[in-house]
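Sample 3 of the quickstart, ligand zinc ion:
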Amino acid sequence: MTSYPVTGGCQCNAVRYSLGAEPLFSEVCHCDSCRRATGAESVGWLTEPAESFRIEHGALTLHESSPGVTRGFCGRCGTTLTYQNGAETIDVTLASLDDPELFPPRAEIWLEERLSWNPANPRLEQHERGGGGGG
Ligand SMILES: [Zn+2]
Ligand SMILES: [Zn+2]
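Result:
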């Protein structure tokens, strides 16, 4: 059993956060917007109820990457930490968790934008576009 809060943060430790409840979903996103925001070929996300996400130290720097979509990152070291589209939930990068093994992705989304040299993982649910969560 995972005990809460679960914690994470950016590379330089200026921004630290906690999750107070079990995530609703966990996924890998192949979309162009996530790629560009992070500089990575795909990005693992968990979806957390917004009320259970808390910044414990420092502050997110926010960037509106599409209308209504806000991405949060550390303004000092640049680590991508959050994605938010609406008030109900917030997505958090799996790899920024202190223990990134806690919530293995269940699905891959936006496979229609996948790079040819980044193979899909057939053990996960496959979605050509958005799936159960954000990203
Ligand atoms: Zn940082
Ligand atoms: Zn995405």
